[in-house]
Amino acid sequence: MNTMNNKMYSYYFLLPAAIIYFLFFLFPTLMSFFYSFTWWTLTDWEFIGFENFINFFQEPSLRIGFRNTLFFAVTATTGKVVLGLLFAVFLCSKIRNRGLLRSIVFFPVLISAIAIGIAFSVMMHPTDGIINSNLAKIGLNGPNWLGEPSLAIFSVAFTDIWRGVGIATVIFIAGIMAIPWEYREALKIDGGSSFQEFWHITLPLSRPAMNTVIILALIDGLRNFDLVWAMTGGGPGFSSDVLASIIYKQYAGGFYGLATAGNVILFLFIALIAFPVFKFINRREVDL
Amino acid sequence: MSVHYENKEEVLSAGAAQKSAVRFSQKKTPKKILVSEILGTLAAVIFFGVPFYFVFINSLKPAEEAAQMNLSWPNSFHMLENYKEVLTINDGRLLLAFFNSTIITLFTILILIIICSMAAFVLARREGLSKKLNYLVLIGLMLPPAIVPTISVLQTLGLFKTMPGIVLLEGALRFSFACILYRAFVATIPRELDEAALIDGCGPLRLFFQIIFPLLKPVTSTIIVLSSIQVYNDFENMLYFFPGADNATVQLTLYNFTGMFGTSYHYLFANVILISIPPLILFIFFNKKIVAGMTAGAVKG
Amino acid sequence: MKKELMAVTCSWLLAGSLAGCGGDGGGEASGNDAGGSSGNDSVTLSMLVSETANLNGIEAVAEAVEEEHNISVEIEQRPGGPEGENVVKTRLATDDMSDLVLFNSGALLQTIDPPENFVDLTDEPNMDRVHDSYKETVTTDGRIYGVPANSSQVGAWLYNKKVYDELDLEIPKTWDQLMENNQMIKDAGKTAVIASYNEIWTAQLPLLADFYNVQAEEPEFAENYTAGDAKFADTSAALRGFEKIWELGVEGENFFNEDFNATTYNQGMEMLATGEGVHYPMLSQVLPIMEENYPDAIGDIGVFPQPNDTEDINGFTVWMPDALLINKNTEKMEAAKQWVEFFISKEGLEIYADAAKSIGPFVVDGIQVPDDAFEAVKQMQPYFDEGSTAPALEFVSPIKGANLPQITSEVGAGIREPQEAAEMYDDDAEKQANQLGIDGW
């Protein structure tokens, strides 16, 4: 049967994607890896071996960067997966205003990161911000969300969840909607409850969607820095630096070889986390 | 939370007893449901709406008021002035940017849909091959494009600073995202379908384009929405790979207002609102498709 | 199998050709003006400027040039700051530079290799009118590559004169007097020193603006620093800059506004305009912004140099204007040179100054500060006349570490002590020296 099928799945289907992907992404990326072993000014280069890699590991805020990258990715991924699934289930149910609500949940995805960064910096202002001024009304003394070194990265992660949960929700909705109705009918006839429907049908059968959300959110979280940059600039001091913002600062500072080496290291770091996760969740997929 | 899936077929095909059971469960607590729905809607509106309200309300204010950056109601409304200025600054650069960004987005999506669905179909069906290639696909999510080498490639091909160039590049950079989504959803389509098609005498092309691709409608809609927003809102790649005064794109227009005189927040926010409208329309349109496509997706293996 | 392949290729080609059609609109426009620059035909020059440049002034001059010489300019904006530097470097590396370029003078100009990329302007007319202090910042190996694109400006202490009158304060001549003023302002319930760390680059000002004092006490510092022989951490005059930030900051006398971490550049200006904050260590480029946003308050804004510990040293640290450069590979060399010549002619600069109020004295002979200049600019003029000015360190040494904003913000916030901060910055500068290929580090 396999041989019969494989004929139907022609390799030529891969060709257009392979050409574009290789030519415009993989090839230039491989080329750039070469520069991680050089002193590079964009116009001129000189081979210096592993010096860039050694220097990168001596970056003063590197330890903070690794820690924050992990905190950020795990927090943001968990938030997006859990909230996205709940929203999706809720928004697939027979509630009124469903269309409106879907748009509202998705709206943050449409707005540019710059505007989101500004809006949240303002709302998280320690005294005038809407969050703390409302906390004050009920007698609570809100923290300095972005100014407190230990808190800043989580405040940014929260903003990232707010911005990205719409994407997760849309993917989950598509996944839930793809579940054949027959399964639910069968359960209903057996007299199953809504919770059982969620637990025995929705959750396992939307696993492809779940896996996709997890892997996309995780990788995105590990290399994300635009919100960090817009909201804290990596500060106060270096306390909310993530790996990608450290590399960005190096590139911006003109350290092109060093920044390229940083990218190689970041890539290996992401691969080290994402590949096993990918393998694990895909094995579960096959088990089903 | 009580969950009731909306589906006409469900009601039509279900037995009478079950129908009444569904009705019964709804009748039991109609008020409770209504209240929780209203509360839920309200919570969502506040949670997701406040930052949007912030951007919008400040886009209506005069310069000094907007510079204070708070949520208060404007003392005087400058909506017309602000939006007119945003639309006309630099000889209407924003309109050109709308045009450019729309064209780029449109063609990128067209290419993405075709190449990614085809590739994902084969990747999902051929498990042995897929395992190795998956990692190669994932790399596209992990690494930012290498700026100078990429420009060199574009220049060699004579595509630098051209629409086809930026379209192909965006296609390459968004490939992984769309391919992974497609792959996950092809996996939900039973192989029995392929075999049935084969027995009916379908070739690979007919199998894919006439049978599989229509079944992928929901995820295609999802990808259209998500990828087009990524392309449309792209800032970094447009800045480096599509430079030139005539090559304005929407995100770069925000720079019109962060210049010499500090940031002109009233204009900046008005600009943000304006450039968010096309993707919003797109979303509202395809949001219905995502759901509508689903009922057609029921598999009658 | 062949048939399938054909079909796939066809659908692929279709997609490709469609993309091609869509592209024509954009491609044409950039290709059109490449050729004709001969005879009486009008010429269009492209010009890449930072978003932070004063477009009013440039556009006014551009209009005049177009009338006179039939040379028009198409301005393309790029981001300011490090992101913009990358754009410029990328475009130079990929041979895609505009005809005219506006870029920083001093240290940053040296990072883009002027002799390799820009036209030697040493022997151009009007060059003798440009002040030597400016020429030094655009010179490589004895040749001059740029002309000033604006007036100069100072990094100094802007203050609110109204509050100074109310509290009966005098302009401080020493650091101690400044600290006394600060204390009295704080006692009066106002913010003594505005810090706007939300935009982190603003945190560097008290260090950078201290360079007049460093230079006065250690005249050789810049040279030795470039050679790698002098460091911030072991030169007491240079270390003072970090110490001064510390003294003003949270762990020092705590003169900052309460929410300094969340305060933006714009909010800093507003505090100064309303008198809620009384001192703002800043560049004088804020003056036209403040005039635009708070027209009633601009007359109350004054400026004094960052004081030294002793009274006998007192002068402004000057930021040199951006340089206007010509792309060495431009196909419209004549037109580009004509444009630049007009720009720095007396007529050109007067048109510029009319359209854009200057933020400091010009660095070209024969251009006077007009009567309607900002109060603060008038206060600067005597210092310039008697020569009590020095260019900021970034204009006399190519080495500037990339992490200075973060490091100074840590000092102000009381996270890192001055000595440690200075050592960290020295390490940072060492990296920059290595990247620039400077010996001795």
Structural notes for this entry:
The complex is a heterotrimer of chains A (288), B (301) and C (441). Chain A has 288 residues and is mainly alpha-helical. Chain A has a single domain, classed as MetI-like fold. Chain A is built from 14 helices and two strands; from the N terminus they run ααββαααααααααααα. Chain B has two domains: 8-58, no CATH class; 79-296, MetI-like (MetI-like fold), CATH 1.10.3720.10. The model of chain B is unreliable at 1-28 and 293-301 (pLDDT under 50). In chain B, helix 8 runs antiparallel to helix 11 and helix 11 (217-232) runs antiparallel to helix 13. Chain C has 441 residues and is an alpha/beta fold. Chain C is 46% helix and 13% strand. Chain C has 20 helices and 13 strands. In chain C, helix 2 (55-69) crosses helix 15. In chain C, the strands form three sheets. In chain C, strands 7, 8, 9, 10, 11 and 13 form a six-stranded mixed beta sheet that branches. Chains in contact: A-B, A-C, B-C.
Using brief descriptors, characterize the structure shown.
heterotrimer, A: 288 residues, mainly alpha, MetI-like fold, two-stranded antiparallel ribbon, 2 strands, 73% helix, 2% strand, B: 301 residues, 13 helices, 0% strand, flat
CATH class identity of the largest domain in chain C: Alpha Beta
What structural class do helix, strand and pairing data of chain C support? alpha/beta
What's the alpha carbon Rg of chain A, rounded to whole Å?
A: 23 Å
Large-scale geometry of chain C: globular
**Number of helical segments with 4 or more residues of chain C:** 20
How much of the sequence lies in strands of chain A comes to under 5%
Cα(first) to Cα(last) distance of chain C is 65 Å
Largest sheet of chain A: 2 strands, antiparallel
**Helical residues, percent of chain C:** 40-55%
CATH superfamily grouping of chain A = MetI-like
Major sheet of chain A: order of its strands? 1-2
Mean pLDDT of chain C, to the nearest integer, reads: 88
Helix percent band of chain A: over 70%
Cα-based radius of gyration of chain C, to the nearest Å: 25 Å
Mean pLDDT score of chain A: 87
Protein chain pair with the most extensive contact, residues per chain: A-B, 101 and 112 residues
CATH class of chain A: Mainly Alpha
Order of helices and strands of chain A: HHEEHHHHHHHHHHHH
> What does the overall shape of chain A look like?
flat
Number of helices of chain A: 14
